[in-house]
Amino acid sequence: MRTIINYLILTIFLTGLSFGQTVDINGEKVEVGQEDLVLQVKGLVCSFCAHGLQKGLSKLKFVDKTKYTKGVYADITHQFVKVGLKKNKEPNIDKALDVITEAGYEVLKSYVNPTGSELKVKEYEKASK
Predict the structure, then answer these.
(1) How many domains in the chain?
(2) Could you tell me the CATH number of the domain that includes residue 37?
(3) Residues 19-58: tens digit of each pLDDT
(4) Backbone angles phi, psi at 4, to 5 degrees
(5) Whole-prediction pTM
(6) Residue 81: CB partners within 8 Å, gap ≥ 6?
(7) Does residue 129 form part of some domain?
């Protein structure tokens, strides 16, 4: 019986490793799954602002609106958004960046994990005005 329990625990642990990677964003451990786009957004501090970003990002064609709130989870405490991606649909990160920057925010980093074990991180420089 103990062997079965140990086997189940190991299986659950390994399954979790194969489908997502975890990153630290402002003290919050955020899982980046195969169907997620995570963006660290500087200045996202109020729920009204988060609602506006959710509304804008949810209009993008690659967003799976069945996940989170119309496809977008916004965390104002840790200043990031998590976008649910449609299966087999390539995310257009530049369009997501446009929505966020046009709303007046700065994107510091983006995270995608297309294979479940290959986290891709991109840092963005502050745009000169």
Answers:
(1) 1
(2) 3.30.70.100
(3) 589 999 999 999 999 999 999 999 999 988 889 999 999 9
(4) -65, -45
(5) 0.81
(6) 38, 39, 41, 44, 50, 53, 54, 57, 72, 73, 74, 75, 100
(7) no
